[in-house]
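General statements about sequence and structure are easier to judge against a single worked case. No coordinates are needed to read the tokens, only the vocabulary itself. The sequence in question and its structure tokens are set out directly beneath this paragraph.
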Amino acid sequence: MYQKVYVKKRPGLDEFLRLLANDYEIVIYTASLAQYADPVIDEMDVERVIAKRLYREACAVDDEGCFYKDLSKIGRKAKDCVMVDDNPRNFRNQKR
């Protein structure tokens, strides 16, 4: 069961995602649970151009119990990925 979510999108997001999807596979990789993330992504991606969604279970867990992303888990070559994240810890173990 989904909760009601409120999403405020930046102007131009729909066009940006549409243009990006013309040349790239868009994967949302979040440390959130699917039950929270799906309604937010659904509101964000009105044109349904996001190809794949990865959730908390696709993340690595450190010894502090926090969830950090590991690009090696997404089945793509790191050299072909662009990672955008607001948490600098998610970049610390990424191979270049």
In short: The mean pLDDT is 85. The beta strands are 27-29, 52-54, 60-61, 67-68. DSSP finds two helices and four strands in the chain. The longest strand covers residues 27-29.
